[in-house]
Amino acid sequence: HGEIDFKEDAKFAQHLKKGEAVSEFAMSKSMAEQRQYLPIYSVRDELLQVIRENQVVVVVGETGSGKTTQLTQYLHEDGYTINGVVGCTQPRRVAAMSVAKRVSEEMETELGDKVGYAIRFEDVTGPNTIIKYMTDGVLLRETLKDADLDKYRVIVMDEAHERSLNTDVLFGILKKVVAQRRDFKLIVTSATLNAQKFSNFFGSVPIFHIPGRTFPVNILYSKTPCEDYVEAAVKQAMTIHITSSPGDILIFMTGQDEIEAACYALAERIEQLISSTRKGVPKLLILPIYSQLPADLQAKIFQKAEDGARKCIVATNIAETSLTVDGIFYVIDTGYGKMKVYNPKMGMDALQVFPVSRAAADQRAGRAGRTGPGTCYRLYTESAYLNEMLPAPVPEIQRTNLGNVVLLLKSLKIENLLDFDFMDPPPQENILNSMYQLWVLGALNNVGGLTDIGWKMVEFPLDPPLAKMLLMGEQLECLDEVLTIVSMLSVPSVFFRPKDRAEESDAARENFFVPESDHLTLLNVYQQWKANQYRGDWCNDHFLHVKGLRKAREVRSQLLDILKTLKIPLTSCGFDWDIVRKAICSAYFHNAARLKGVGEYVNCRNGMPCHLHPSSALFGLGYTPEYVVYHELILTTKEYMQCVTAVEPQWLAELGPMFFSVKESDTTLLEHKKKQKEEKTAMEEEMENLRKMQAEAEKE
Ligand code: ADP
Ligand code: MG
């Protein structure tokens, strides 16, 4: 890869001295003093005045100016929590948790008491909670139960610039709440300057700017494109650590695997250095952060390193705007991020690695200039920045499957989704595609209305196919088993594979294998854990993450509560696990694949090649059934099927896309049949058009 081009900048070196002083100043302060030091504090009273005078306000301020942690507290101090809750939405769960914790500390209250948070499957709030941080998904689901959001006095829609799918849908819903409730206030915050759009959407509401306080960041580009950005980032971090003046390092990677690889490599290099030099090697505190990292480890990034040590945080784009760590002077930007994108070839969403946008790259660089002047090392060329990166990210609503959104809006009685007040409407074909998938799952009828199954599916905070799997468990009387599988699929992998004990842990995993199914392997793990009294030491002995299993148990009990409220009884099939496979098949036939070669399959619908993953039970035992269904496809070096189950071809014929029935109607049977036939023809025509549209899009 290319060497970083060091441009020595004399002015910059001068700034550095000042910057260090600023940072030390900030760090030595008490929490109350730190609050007053934030840029938002200097405009506190004016801001509260504007909020008093307006029902909707857009607030723009640099990342780290205090929007997320301070606004809610100011609103509380100004009396808004006397008769209601101040809610603050976050697109990311990590941010909701971490910020709630920080604010509870600033307000000197237990987390979950006056200040709490709620994310999917985890509600840490109580009767006293007056400031509630939550993911935008949680608030969206709350609108199902209470369309006017009566318990909230104010909602702060944070990180609006992120344009997450749920935030975008909330925009339309909250606009209605604003029109309906005079006592309700809405504050929309954004880290970037293009806030005019938000203001316009709500009818030209005021935009309040928090004055920035940032330091210059020296930006250095790679001279040539780099081939292995993980290696390049590790090398750059080591160079900084050995040769540059104090200041913490922040590295941006795309996901957990890369972050772990980078942290491992960094630790190894430090070890090597220690053993090869006589002189002392300066300490480096290596801290990963990504959404699936346990909360206690996440919190570590904010801790001050012990004397003299330098921190090196390796993060996903969570650290771009959602979380601010003070004391970062060096940013290493790989230029990539993971994004969920609808892939028309696969007919579904896939997490894929993409170059970030210029706006995101600038945000990343800005992280180095918060406490003093900093440096950003871009591991890509200046020409890539100028010519290859998009100016701004594409909003999620424009690029992902809308299955959940369609279900939700339908249940809110929004019949024609194209009429919904979207800030940027999703492409029509996106909506039609998602509707088609819901129709195939039996959640929508021939005229696009919710079926009985569809109404039930809305109740579960799950992706439509997983909700369908649960309901098929009910129908096939193996709900207990399916419930466990769904819960296990809703948590990160429970298999623990330390690099230095890889063989041992692989052997332990193999002991749980059920030859024909990874889903059943998960069921087996859970049932054995249960048979061993849910013990933690048992998990350790078997190379299982106890935290992951506990989380699965918690998810399971929450889903069970929902099943109870729907009066669905918990049936079990004992050890007749074939029926469980049938339930899985019924929800995932869109992900069916046929055997083509050794370990090689092709998707039945579109002929896409897909492979058994080396970690699959089927792969491990060398079992290659004719037909399988899979949970999801992950794209790395190959298209790998994640979580695979062998299925019988007659199940696919029976349950597959052509299987369809409408049960609800009060017209006579004959009329009903006629109507049904007409509707079906219409829907099929629509689907045919859709397929044509897609085929043309692919050609282009
Ligand atoms: P914004 O939302 O405008 O980006 P925040 O309110 O998130 O700003 O951050 C304000 C300040 O609070 C930052 O300086 C940040 O370092 C600090 N902060 C936020 N969360 C924590 C935490 N968990 N621990 C320590 N400091 C934190
Ligand atoms: Mg924020």
UniProtKB/TrEMBL annotation:
Residue stretches spanning the membrane: none
Claim: Plastid is one of the keywords in the record: no
Superkingdom of the source species: Eukaryota
Signal peptide (UniProt feature, chain positions): none
Domain Helicase C-terminal per the UniProt entry, residue ranges: 233-413
Enzyme Commission code: 3.6.4.13
Catalysed reaction, written as an equation: ATP + H2O = ADP + phosphate + H(+)
Biased composition annotated in UniProt, kind: Basic and acidic residues: 671-700
Molecular functions per Gene Ontology: helicase activity
Domain Helicase ATP-binding intervals: 48-211
Keywords: ATP-binding, Helicase, Hydrolase, Nucleotide-binding
Record's keyword annotation contains Hydrolase: yes
Family listed: Belongs to the DEAD box helicase family. DEAH subfamily. PRP16 sub-subfamily.
Protein's name according to its UniProt entry: RNA helicase
Organism listed in the record: Gossypium hirsutum (Upland cotton)
Entire-sequence positions represented here: 370 to 1069 of 1105
